[in-house]
Each structure stands twice: as structure tokens, then as C-alpha cells.
TrEMBL record:
Gene3D superfamilies: Jann2411-like domain (1.10.3300.10). This is CGNR zinc finger domain-containing protein. Residues 149-191 form the Zinc finger CGNR domain. It comes from the Bacteria. It comes from Streptosporangium jomthongense. InterPro entries: ABATE (IPR010852), ABATE_dom_sf (IPR023286), Znf_CGNR (IPR021005). It holds the Pfam family ABATE. PANTHER family: BLL6575 PROTEIN.
Length: 198
């Protein structure tokens, strides 16, 4: 039996926009389930996805995960990465925005309003509730005005999700010393090839 995991309180708490909130950390944890920097793929199969959901606190360890759930998780992850790349200056892909809207319709949340706070809570439990929780976190970030700080690295082999802590939100790489340097080297070599002629 799965449990419904409530979303974090929405847009009512303070804090510096330079510090990632729990909502930002959840979105980043989800998009970074890919095999990155020696880590294993967390959405490799239904078992690894179930383990990740339990470790992230999005479902209990006995949650039922189907092949359809796994495919949906991968699609949601790719759509989010596309949007996070646009936050780092890449062109916006309409299909990513459309997919996120469709996911919002498939995995709805309900507002729970208290005296001093409010939260967006998944309507369903299980994997549907987990997807809703990720989407609720993105909505919370947008309401806080910090959604654009959640980005994906513009270095194509990387595309690691990261939180832009710079005051002017100008970061486009997860690490300027590694990914930024790699991109600068590639650009230099491309210019050198172009200038050398046939």
C-alpha cells in the first residue's frame, strides 16, 4: 500500500533566493537520476526507479512500479531537462512545455490551505503521487520566483541539473572550471578550423 506524500509548503516561507529550497533540491534530484559523472542510471528499470522513489521519500519501498510508470518517469525527466536548458539560455522547445502541461493534467495536485501556510498535495499516491510532487515543486519554485535559477548545464555531454546561485543568474554551466572550460576549448578549436580554410 502506497502513501500520499504531501508537497512542501508553497511560496510562503522566506529565505534567500541564492539558496536552493527543498523544492529545488527535489526537482534537481529527479532530473539528475541519469547516469552522470560515474553515477548509475536511477531509471534503468522498474526496480531501480522504485528504489530511487523510496530513497527520495516520494513513496514507500513497496510501491508498485510498472513499465508504463518507468517510461513516464523518463519522459517527465527529459521534458524537465529541456526546460532547465532553456533557463540556461538554450532555445525553448515547445514540445517540452507541452509535455509538462500534459503531465500536470495526468498527475494533479490539490491546494491545502492553512492559517499561515499552504501546500500543493498530490491527489493520488504511488508513482502518480511522486510525479505530482515533482510538478508541485516546480510550481512552488515558479511562485517563489526562483524557477529560472534551476538550470541544466549547457555542456552537451553533461546537462547536469544545478541551482544557479549567482546574483545575476548568469551561470550556464554546472561548473565553469570544467564544463565551461570544455565548451571554451571546443569553441576555440571550431574557430581555428574555420579560419584555417579548406
Amino acid at each position: 500500500m502506497s502513501t500520499v506524500v504531501p508537497a512542501a509548503p508553497a511560496a510562503t516561507t522566506g529565505g534567500s533566493p541564492l539558496t536552493p529550497s527543498p523544492a529545488a533540491e527535489l526537482v534537481l534530484a529527479f532530473v539528475n537520476t541519469r547516469a552522470l559523472r560515474g553515477e548509475r542510471e536511477r531509471l534503468a528499470d522498474t526496480e531501480s526507479f522504485r528504489d530511487w522513489l523510496a530513497a527520495a521519500g516520494l513513496a514507500d519501498s513497496g510501491v508498485r512500479v510498472t513499465a508504463t510508470d518507468l517510461a513516464a518517469a523518463r519522459e517527465l525527466r527529459e521534458a524537465l531537462i529541456g526546460v532547465l536548458l532553456s533557463h540556461a539560455g538554450a532555445p525553448v522547445r515547445d514540445e517540452d512545455v507541452d509535455r509538462l502541461r500534459r503531465f500536470g493534467e495526468l498527475y494533479p495536485v490539490r491546494p491545502v490551505v492553512g492559517v499561515l501556510d499552504a501546500a500543493l498535495c498530490p491527489v493520488a499516491g504511488g508513482t502518480a503521487g511522486a510525479f505530482a510532487r515533482v510538478l508541485a515543486s516546480a510550481a512552488e519554485l515558479a511562485l517563489r520566483g526562483t524557477w529560472s535559477r534551476v538550470k541544466a548545464c549547457r555542456n552537451p555531454p553533461c546537462e547536469l541539473g544545478y541551482y544557479d546561485r549567482s546574483r545575476n543568474q548568469a551561470a550556464v554551466y554546472c561548473d565553469a572550471r570544467t564544463c565551461g572550460a570544455q565548451m571554451a576549448t571546443r569553441a576555440y578549436r571550431a574557430r581555428a578550423r574555420a579560419n584555417s580554410g579548406p
